[in-house]
Amino acid sequence: EHYLARIQQLDGTLNSFITVTQELALEQARAADARLADGSAGPLTGIPLAHKDLFCTRGVRTSCGSKMLDNFVAPYESTVTQRFIDAGAVTLGKTNMDEFAMGSSNESSFYGPVRNPWNQELIPGGSSGGSAAAVAARLCAAATGTDTGGSIRQPSGFTGLTGLKPTYGRVSRWGMIAYASSLDQAGPMARTAEDCALLLQAMAGFDERDSTSVEHPVPDYSAELNQPLQGLRVGLPKEYFGEGLDAGIANTIDQAVKQLQALGAEIREVSLPNAELAIPAYYVIASAEASSNLSRFDGVRYGYRCENPTDLMDLYLRSREEGFGAEVKRRIMVGTYALSAGYYDAYYLQAQKIRRLIKNDFLAAFEQVDVILSPTSPIPAFRIGEKIDDPVSLYLTDIYTITANLAGVPGVALPAGFANDLPVGMQLLGPYFSEPRLLNVAHQYQ
Ligand code: GLN
Known about the structure:
It is a single chain. The chain contains 14 helices and 11 strands. It is of the alpha/beta class. The chain has a domain at 2-203: Amidase signature (AS) enzymes, CATH 3.90.1300.10. The protein has an 11-stranded mixed β-sheet, with helices on both faces. The protein is globular and about 70 Å long.
């Protein structure tokens, strides 16, 4: 009731929720009370959460931030949200997001932009901007997000949260509306690393319904939180601290590095020589996969359908023309072009080769260090509307986050400090399945 009242009071301005599930929340809260009384409660029983609006939730609208799915009520529950239901968590609602998770500022949503609670003129980041703003404004205790090229880590950085993108395959993608299937991964967004550990515990694990889900034992994510950082080897990629990095952010990260040193960490320079190729490779691969994934939205089986189609082709064309926003159409066109005969070798195949090189850069770096540290974004949160006409400058801000998705390695974003009265995010990347270590370092820093 406390959180529902806060949503009622504050979300008219913030716009972080697309749907508030008041009745469901109160019903689940009563069930949680019963579990507390009969002794079957776990650590998440009764904890009020919000879910990014691309997790299918049975009987609840699942819009993916798009007019295309504005009328879509999912007939089944995603694995991630089902696991939270099984743990006894409460669902407060579904959060705003960039349309089909394409964006870095939450401005491509059909439901309008989300405001950053730290300064309401500014974007909260994206694409999980609604989840970020909702947790930062204490409209929920924690939230889920998804990260294809930084959508958990970048908005966490802009709103002072801790957010974790797990190793690819760690969390089931079943029931999560696909953007770029080889890059998408769900994870927690919360106030602290400790909270992220509890949430990831519920989310992680093999799921036979997702063929890319990994059969790898799930450790106790809270067990190593309190380990001292003595001897931890932290790598600073030399390519990440050059031109284009905001001075206030650079300075805050500098201080954070000193604090880690004081906690016993050893700092080393490392190199990710192919990092500069990551953005072009990512936007070819992600758009190619999106163009294929989004072909299912044709106005026939579900979702938006145009009025009075004259024939089948008119139905397809107008439903997609009217149902998708500008950024989604841009990605579909780029992706279709990159996959078309004659261009496949020149773009898609090249991008896949770069992807392999980037993965190899990480494998080499992790022979020398335990974690890699960087800012989450080269620039601070910007004004709503400022970059809306310049998609490429928006794409360039993903520079620090997308390499982890291309390689499949896990990453955590956490608040490093403040610059110009705004939170500055710091990112730690680690080898495959090093989530316990990343959460440990984040917890010790906090
Ligand atoms: N900004 C990136 C994109 O638009 C990443 C988005 C995401 O991680 N979902 O593709």
